[in-house]
Amino acid sequence: MISSPFESAEYQSRLAKVRNEMVKRRLDLLIVNDIANQHYLTAYDGWSFYTPQVVVVPLTGEPVWLGRNMDAVGGRLTAWMKPENVVGYPEDHVQTPERHPMDWIGRWIAEKGWGKGRIGIELEAYYYSPKAHARLTMALPNAVFVDADLLVNWVRAVKSPAEIAYLRLGARLAEAAVAKAYEIISPGIRECDAIAAIQTAQYSGLRDHAGDITALPPTILAGENASAPHLMWSNRAFTANETIALELAGACRHYTSGLARTMQLGIKPRHVADVEKAVLEGMDAVLETARPGTVAHDVEAAWRAAINRHGLKKESRIGYSIGVAFPPDWGEHTISLRQGDTTVLQAGHVVHAILGMWMEGWGIEISETILITERGCETLTSFPREIFVKV
Amino acid sequence: MISSPFESAEYQSRLAKVRNEMVKRRLDLLIVNDIANQHYLTAYDGWSFYTPQVVVVPLTGEPVWLGRNMDAVGGRLTAWMKPENVVGYPEDHVQTPERHPMDWIGRWIAEKGWGKGRIGIELEAYYYSPKAHARLTMALPNAVFVDADLLVNWVRAVKSPAEIAYLRLGARLAEAAVAKAYEIISPGIRECDAIAAIQTAQYSGLRDHAGDITALPPTILAGENASAPHLMWSNRAFTANETIALELAGACRHYTSGLARTMQLGIKPRHVADVEKAVLEGMDAVLETARPGTVAHDVEAAWRAAINRHGLKKESRIGYSIGVAFPPDWGEHTISLRQGDTTVLQAGHVVHAILGMWMEGWGIEISETILITERGCETLTSFPREIFVKV
């Protein structure tokens, strides 16, 4: 048995909150397709989600993990449920046009007597396909399917003390990653070599805990890539006088704290310093505004007012709820810091406020992972916010 | 402009093969949701697929990439099409219940005049959700949607010389990764530290090329995890006398060669040596059988006969087509080496034959990435196959 990240009481509490919401929505069963949600409810942890895998939550009793037979062994090693609640479908259902895993899973649900009534299901989870859904609904003709997207995600939005402790460890790894980037990146160093050093800090940066894979890989925006987010590293070497945006994170037991910073090789140009000043003031405005009772869109409005004073604009949102995460995204798809988001912030919310300004041919990013506390907020990462100049 | 992995002629040839298949199936348009397929057709390369993103292939003219506005900048830097064929949807459509990117994309397709006729669409691509499909079909009421899963994947199955060159580079990175694992793994070393060293070899192992992220992260099966594939690393330190299965790969311009090997700390136990012998004979049987004209299931049958002679059985398939890959899977979902797969192998096919035997509390894995040649086959990786014993 692999050590579970949390005590049994934590999982029971999560399950109770999810069931409370199921009852409100008159659901008889919940089918959880999102991998982070599956892990959140069961502790199951394996890179097996490239074949269909679901967690089924009835109103009473344990949840059931259903996945590939080969991975049910790992399910029994990582998930907290009794072995009979970790169920594998036959290997001959894997990636073949002849049989679909959802045929088998649907039959299993029906045989269990759970194929009637209202079934809530996550219809926008990564790795749950239109074909999978068509096959599942075909196998369960007596059920009424109800969209349950984000039901579990909204339960996740408020973090427990134990979760916050992991996020703090993730924050230490994120700090180690940025410090390593500052240390290694210099003219002549290749992007891929910098990424290797950064990932080493992400995985090895804590003595008593492993760093986990981050849901997004490290991104470094420099040179030809500097004007666009989310591009991948290459064989290119850094050159003198580049402005380099680093979008990094650290993850401990999959709890992820983001940390973006910007560094400057050589002398910081005036236009970079000007945008930096605006962004730093914008971050101050975010941190002054974010507290229990504030509406999410007011945090963005405070940022917008600050950068507008500098003649700058930004179209995209500036932050999102963050927590337990699996690839491809560490955002939780619930709270966004943007116009029109009316979520009222409360203690235990954690948002990654990421202030990315992509200009013509260069860009800067500065972020903080922010815990809403009883009285205000706290940045989980503790790292100088200014652009790091390396001459 | 970021350097494209291939010449223009390569993309034109791919497009011609895809259109040939579209015509055969009487498709007027193809919507490509699979990220590896999108990259294969357009060279687009960014970690942006956590928001909806499609590539639309009409019967004439350039394909069109449609994704998040923020990522269209990176699209214009990486994709080979004219800038007007890289199209961004507004940021206020990102992860909000009020607007769905597929509403916008569907309208765009309709306005282009492509909303009529038969539209082929990949219904089992990762990151394409049932909700996305429902919104898209709602926005295109005059189209007939036809399942086009694996249409592009089957075009990908036969590799060009330029693709094989990248797979050879990926194979060098995979060899570097296994060599590094052999070097670093010893009693007292933590799993997470070994993973960091292995990833460094995967990214930095070639002087003239960057190593890319592999579609599956490195997996190390040892200690409590040894009896199950696909589990993730932890803070645990290796101990004396462990049998350790390494499932690794290397990726160059996302072309991925897999390489699994097994190492033994201390003296190799008799039961491990017995299974090793069977697996090595099984690999010999695979390599003797795999050639143009052989049916995929006969390769598996040769393996099965070999291990049956040693009293061993394996339920799951022993290999799959491999090539260009993005997370979460490096398999191409076409050819499988297993019972019932009637694909006739041909020159240019590349399969990852992975012989994993997970026993009670331990396991071994040995794999080869195999290119089918004109006369037989060739392993792209060149690395001693026997269990590496480290005393």
TrEMBL record, chains A, B:
Pfam families: Creatinase_N, Peptidase_M24
SUPFAM superfamilies (alphabetical): Creatinase/aminopeptidase (SSF55920), Creatinase/prolidase N-terminal domain (SSF53092)
Entries under InterPro entries matching the protein: Creatin/AminoP/Spt16_N (IPR029149), Creatinase/aminopeptidase-like (IPR036005), Creatinase_N (IPR000587), Pept_M24 (IPR000994), Peptidase_M24B (IPR050659)
Domain of life where this protein originates: Bacteria
Occurrences of domain Peptidase M24 (ranges): 167-374
Residue stretches making up the Creatinase N-terminal domain: 14-158
PANTHER family in UniProt: AMINOPEPTIDASE, AMINOPEPTIDASE YPDF
Protein name according to UniProt: Xaa-Pro dipeptidase
